[in-house]
Amino acid sequence: xxxxxxxxxxxxxxxxxxxxxxxxxxxxxxxxxxxxxxxxxxxxxxxxxxx
Length: 51
Description:
The chain is an alpha+beta fold. The chain has one domain. Helix content is 29%, strand content 12%. It has three helices and two strands, in the order E-H-E-H-H. It has a two-stranded parallel sheet with strand order 1-2.
């Protein structure tokens, strides 16, 4: 038996990118969750902080 057989299905996710922001707000797509890599958003001077 594999380890993943014991894990619950959490839905389908998508890696969050700034290009998605407006679409998410306006269209509210049927995405179960978004993966957010905090290092891309919290670093000093990082581009996502600019947007």
